[in-house]
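Sequence in, structure out.
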Amino acid sequence: MINDLKILLVDDDKIMLFLHEMFLKKSGILNDTVLCYNGSDALQYLESYPSQETNFLVLLDINMPIMNGWEFLDAIGGRPYLNRVHVVMVSSATEESEMKRATNYSQVIDYQQKPLSIESCNKIVNSEMLKGFFENQIAR
């Protein structure tokens, strides 16, 4: 059975959060989204989440104050919920080194350029790692 999926949008730019949430909805994704303004907010949310069944899709910016995307990825390593966290890096960084660095983290399933689009949201939804989470939830 496919468990529940929560989506965390993690970015310090409120306009990007708004755009990304809008594109997810326009892509037909009906999941509730949680907005986090840095990695620390996202980490606190994961740490305090009561369900042991819920999976998380984290759309994660890299450059943020307080705790950046890399620090967030390091912080969740070894946590009991790690295998239930699927991360898509969403960044304006175009350096090949950043994309390559993302592959060092097993929970990173994709790397997308900012801002997301309907096409990139569709790519995320159709990701092999997320198959089954959206089958009955997409409003087309």
